[in-house]
Specification:
The structure is a single chain. About 40% of the residues are buried. This protein has 9 helices and 16 strands. Helix 2 packs across helix 4, helix 3 packs across helix 4 and helix 6 runs parallel beside helix 8. An 8-stranded mixed β-sheet has the order 5-10-2-1-13-15-16-14, sandwiched between helices. The protein has a 4-stranded mixed barrel with strand order 6-9-12-11.
Amino acid sequence: MAGDTAAGRDIHAKAETLIEALPYFQRYAGRSFVVKYGGNAMGDERAAREFAEDVVLLKAVGINPVVVHGGGPQIGAMLEKLGVETTFVDGLRVTDKQTADVAEMVLSGAINKAIVGSIARAGGKAIGISGKDGGLVTAKKLARTVKDPDSNIEKALDLGFVGEPAKVDTTVLETATAAGMIPVVAPIGVGEDGHTYNINADTMAGALAAALGAARLLLLTDVTGVLDKQGSLLTDLTPADIARLRDDGTISGGMIPKLETCVSAVEAGCEAAVVLDGRVPHAMLLEFFTARGAGTLVSAG
């Protein structure tokens, strides 16, 4: 009897979990979620499988996920394998024509199709595309400046074929979504000059989320989220909060551009953005379908 009782409690717990999730299913049905996928999860078989399962579940309950993936480490490994020298300026990879070709091959080829395959094995239908397909993203050359340490004068930084979205046409995403497919997008775009540009995956995801008026932009990271100076997770932030935390040094390093992406997306039409630890099993489901949440939510306030 004890075993039956334990089994019964387990069944009831599962039922209660579904009931807790019901309002979120209803709230997000028919809405778009843009998920930036990258980091350690991409190289871990278990994490990749769980990510694919989560994405398929989102689609099954009526949400329209769009996956945008990175691939910096894989690009670096391929460049090394091919004997192509890589130059970094101010921590950013300078992308010449040869490097841009390799980046497109790795991003639009091996990585993109591996994710499509994972989603297929989890029971979903995914289609791999890049920003070039269907005129999804028209890119422009990324304009960056660096301060000369001697003269303190700002100088233009030429990163080669590194771009940012100038224009987004979501037709191809909406067409794929309406056909029951999950778009998996490589962060490559083409400029009006005809050149191919490599785009930061966070930036690409933010631009797509804004253009789609997404319910959520989700940036999967290798950290817990945004932490205060005591190391505690900050669960809800507004753009004003982020500006204050940046000024006092609470937010620094690689978290700054991620939060800038979140703020830009929210201010341009995305309902909210979440910075979430992609190493946690099924972190997306915990964030979206429970009252507790699991990451740092950025909203207009």
